[in-house]
Amino acid sequence: MLILHDNIESGNAFKVRLLLHQLGIPFNSIQYDVTKGATRTSDFLTRINSNGRIPVVEFEDGRCLAESNAILYYFGVNTIFFPKDKWQQAEVMQWLFFEQYSHEPFVAVAKYILTMLPCDSPRRAEIPTLHTKGYAALQIMEHRLKKHEYLVGEDYSIADIALFSYTHKAEMGDFNLSLFPNIQKWITRIEQRPDFISMYPKDWKKI
Amino acid sequence: MLILHDNIESGNAFKVRLLLHQLGIPFNSIQYDVTKGATRTSDFLTRINSNGRIPVVEFEDGRCLAESNAILYYFGVNTIFFPKDKWQQAEVMQWLFFEQYSHEPFVAVAKYILTMLPCDSPRRAEIPTLHTKGYAALQIMEHRLKKHEYLVGEDYSIADIALFSYTHKAEMGDFNLSLFPNIQKWITRIEQRPDFISMYPKDWKKI
Q: In this complex, which of B70, B87, B143 lies closest to A90 when CB atoms are compared?
């Protein structure tokens, strides 16, 4: 069976869990504590991902694929979660690269600093800059979602999965989502899909 | 004709110039001085790219596509610069996202700080961290290129174009490429392709 090298706190990993669930593809999850360097061991770097990051999907023949949005592409292409139209395919790509360059480094990192590091971490000094840049990314999404139900065309796609993941937990990084009513409606729309699963399972408790 | 919203100093823009040239697609280039906020004007944000960045390709009907690697995908897919094999397609995507998350923010930003900002810029303090992270990215490329001529499969693809761009100018950011003999051979291999063009035209002089 497919193995997902995973971390419950990672929005990048949740993207993959959500898409695999929505596609009905079974997998086993292996959890890594990234705060303790579990993805930087010699075995992980040699066999799983030389870049020392999760998520990674490992196939039965041992091949490994890293980069959450590359994984979304691999499983999403030629399914209902990737548009057929060539222009819309390019727009999906635009949102995926936007997410990794202009959204995740700010929205995800604020969540990480405020929920995973000690209260007196010197990295808290980064929060004002992360907020400025993260709010700019959220504003771009809000603008698009003002007139459209989803990010590309009128259908849910891997672009929505990629952006939804850290956006719907942005308040854990102290972002105020009430400033973005159309993002909030889009989050609700995605959460109300019958094939939706939560990022944190109901029985999950932070240690 | 296609318009490329462009900047001669941007490796992200050069990726697009190189691929369009190699595909024989003509375009007009419009240059922007990003150090003077030329991509943050109201017209640019409204009409070209709400994220205020180049490169952007503008089609004759006014549609605009941003994100350099999304542009590479749009023009590269279904050409010789994108593999036919589904697994190799995923590997191309893995390298494209690696480039934007783990390479460009360090290798490109070091070049920007050292060549575009004043010598006394306080941003020079970022250089040691940028070097640590940028060298880690270069090491991952070096490892792959030790046993392969190109990043994916055995053929030149948009993955090579994406990574080549800032890597071949990494010394402008004070990275020592002599530490990476296989990257150097790969750079030479790409520069010797008959369809190669230089990032800086011969008659170009920095103002």
A: B70
* pLDDT per residue as tens digits for the range A136-181: 999 999 999 999 999 999 999 999 999 999 999 999 999 999 999 9
Assigned fold of A2-76: Glutaredoxin (3.40.30)
The shortest CB-CB distance from A70 to any of B63, B70, B94 is to: B94
- Reported as type and span, the H/E element at residue A56 is strand A56-58
Q: How far apart are CA A82 and CA A19, in angstroms?
A: 11
- Whether pTM exceeds 0.95: yes
pLDDT tens string B149-192: 999 999 999 999 999 999 999 999 999 999 999 999 999 999 99
Q: Which residue of B has its CA nearest to A86?
A: B74
Q: Which residues of B touch A87 (CB under 8 A)?
A: 63
Cα B122 from Cα B155, distance rounded (Å): 42
**Nearest Cα to B3, choosing from B41, B49, B40?**
B49
Shortest CA distance from B77: residue in chain A: A86
Testing the interface with A: which of B65, B67, B139 to mutate, by most A Cβ within 10 A? Answer: B67
Same fold, B2-76 and B86-191: no
DSSP 8-state symbol, B101: I
d(CA B126, nearest CA chain A) in Å: 14
Token pair 């390019």 in the structure block, residue: A90
With an 8 Å Cβ cutoff, are B93 and A102 in contact? no
Interface confidence (ipTM) of the complex = 0.96
CB contact under 8 A, A70 and B90: yes
Domain ranges in chain B are: 2-76, 86-191
As a residue count, chain B comes to: 207
CA-to-CA distance for A157 and A144, rounded, in angstroms?
Answer: 15
CA distances from B15 to B12, B52, B76, B96 (A): 5, 18, 11, 12
Was domain A86-191 assigned CATH 1.25.40.10? no
Burial of A97 (0-12, 13-18, 19+ CB in 10 A): buried
Contact B127, B110 (CB under 8 A): yes
